[in-house]
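If your schedule permits, I should be very grateful for your opinion on a structural question. What I wish to show you is a protein chain and, alongside it, a tokenised description of its three-dimensional fold. Would you kindly read the sequence against the tokens and tell me how you understand this chain to fold? Here, with my thanks, is the record as I have it:

===
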Amino acid sequence: MLDDKRILLIISGGIAAYKSLELIRRVREHGGKVRCVLTSAAANFITPMSVATLSEDRVYGELFSLTAESEIGHIKLSRDADLVVVAPATANILAKMAHGIADDLATTLLLATDKDVLVAPAMNVRMWQHAATQENVATLKTRNIIFSGPAEGKMACGEYGLGKMIEPQQIYQEISHYFSMPGPLAGRRAIVTSGPTYEAIDPVRYIGNRSSGKQGHAIAAALSGMGADTVLITGPTNQIDPYGVETVRIESALELHAAVLSYLPADIAVCAAAVADWRIANATDRKIKKTSHSKPPQLKLIENPDVLHELSAVGEKRPKLIVGFAAETEQIVKNAKKKRENKGCDWIIANNVSPSSGTFGGDSNVIHLLTETGTEDWPEMDKTEIANRLAKRIADHFRNISQAME
């Protein structure tokens, strides 16, 4: 079962395009979701209506659709999927992929995606054997493009040989196998903190902040999607618990502190929660009553535990990679560098939360990733895209360590 996995299916212009309809049906009946892109050549073999009917979704074909491009639709399409599948993959589209050509929606998506790509080649045997095609295939394999087929058999043109697209059932099995494989973070344990903390004044009132939890929840989902055994420790938010992630709900900084320490040891810690620096020393378990003659209560503040600093200095249980967040309103990178040094964490993600930025609580963000090797300035992205990119960066970090030890 594919359990709501999202497949972006690109159908290019070959006679085998009719088989894509059966592939859509098989993915759907096993719980997957399919969004389809039909090239102009493919529309000569099958109709958008038949594809839309089977996928139960809109079919995409035009790169410059005014409704989609108002939100940079081709970028969003390329990132929303869990896997991109090109079936059939003609010699033409393989050549464009190998050389980075993006002259229509399908090839633009393939160039813009940050997800794995599986291709099912389909072409005449001579085209498959041609040196240009074989060089393109070799290039794509070095980029980790997954090849499913081709098969040997009788072609539509009457010739016999290698180049025939494998059957839809076989492609489905390849897709199913892909999702059953352990992710690059399999065997790793991750702790992610998210959301705000609320520091009680009395049973009714509290001091809090505007964190929505969107970024932290997205990071937990992304790490889990890459195979990490992930626990999410979150303050009060309206976010849905990520699928497959153990979620622990807390309210105060003291509760978050205790929860984080209880889940050590871990390989990865991403501290995305906006933890209150102070709490109320004279909090009361009874509501403070206001009268016409009463003065505002004097609130005495005391410092909360510094979770990020403690994690970085916890000794043998210290996570192998600790990622902190620096929400700043001015001198973003400069202040984040100081924080990384003071806290002792490995990486810091800095972002601008000044009122003019609109990022605190929003759906997108502009971040700077500070590591031991320098600063990476990431462009504005959806918070889910940021989470996926960060998870991949973390996976690359551990893979590089493993390779260095071999």
The mean pLDDT is 90. The chain is about 35% helix and 25% strand.
